[in-house]
Design brief:
Mean pLDDT: 94
Radius of gyration: 13 Å
Order of helices and strands: EEEEEEEEEEE
Low-confidence stretches: none
Helix content: under 10%
Largest sheet: 7 strands, mixed
Oligomer: single chain
Number of helices: 0
Number of strands: 11
Structural class: mainly beta
Distance between the termini: 41 Å
């Protein structure tokens, strides 16, 4: 059974960079779309970007476009989220999961842990941006 594990979160200052990793265990990442999501305190979970099986990505959420980049390294069974110029509003728990499809409007859509069509949620990694 596929299990996703996120890592790479931490406490950073505004303007810093971080690389998050989503590593698959129990199956091969090549067969799955991988979505990055985040949930800030008191807010709904939102889609950040989706990396499709074909290797492409969907749109990014508007407030991260140009600062965040998703990529996948199938040989390491890992999808990355490179984040630069981090802002205080990027503070959130970041999750990865497997959406059945990478819809064109994935970035910015609201999701729940029980949203149909999204499975294999990881445990999340905390990113805190603070001065």
């Amino acid at each position: 059974q596929l299990q996703l594990v996120e890592s790479g979160g931490g406490l950073v200052q505004p303007g810093a960079s971080l690389r998050l990793s989503c590593t698959a265990h129990g199956d091969t990442l090549n067969y799955y779309n991988i979505g990055w999501f985040r949930q800030a305190p008191g807010k709904e979970r939102e889609g950040v970007v989706c990396s499709s099986v074909s290797g492409g990505t969907t749109n990014y959420a508007a407030d991260v476009s140009g600062r965040f980049t998703a990529s996948r390294e199938n040989g390491k069974n890992t999808v990355y989220l490179d984040m630069k110029n981090l802002k205080i509003d990027d503070t959130a728990v970041y999750y990865c999961a497997t959406p059945a499809e990478c819809s064109w409007n994935f970035g910015g859509k609201t999701f729940r842990a029980d949203t149909p069509g999204v499975s294999n949620w990881g445990q999340g990694t905390q990113v805190t941006v603070s001065s």
